[in-house]
Design goal:
Layout (H helix, E strand, L loop, with lengths): L24 E8 L2 E3 L2 E4 L4 E8 L4 E5 L3 E6 L4 E7 L4 E6 L11 E6 L1
Parallel strand pairs: 1-4, 3-9
Antiparallel strand pairs: 1-2, 4-7, 5-6, 5-8, 8-9
Length: about 110
């Protein structure tokens, strides 16, 4: 798995958003206390993805388990971060802000 880390554009929040590769497929993800929509995301292994994360209420982030932070966003803002999963499989994504994951803020990425 290659996770490119740099300041991402997207106007809205969080330092350390992973860089977005040119031509990456955008996937819009809405976040609110304490859920993501969609909760299930399908990608192709090796595909460059740009997560466009919008927060409806407070700070949230999109972190892939064992891979790291993709994008963080402040409340009421939208930000973008990129990732590429090089191997097929099922991956869990979640909000790493204290208490959010425990409250059910997680989902699944399936790479085929």
């Amino acid at each position: 798995m290659l996770l490119l880390v740099a300041c991402g554009g997207g106007g809205g929040g969080g330092n350390g958003n992973a860089a977005v590769e040119a031509g990456a497929r955008e996937i819009k993800v809405n976040s609110r206390s304490y859920a993501f929509a969609p909760m299930d995301i399908d990608v192709q292994a090796g595909e460059d993805i740009a997560v466009v994360l919008h927060s409806q209420d407070q700070a949230h982030d999109f972190t892939i388990e064992d891979k790291g932070l993709v994008v963080a966003v402040d409340g009421g803002k939208t930000a973008k971060g990129g990732f590429r999963l090089t191997k097929s499989g099922t991956y869990t994504f979640y909000c790493s802000i204290s208490g959010h994951r425990a409250a059910g803020m997680e989902g699944t990425i399936t790479a085929s």
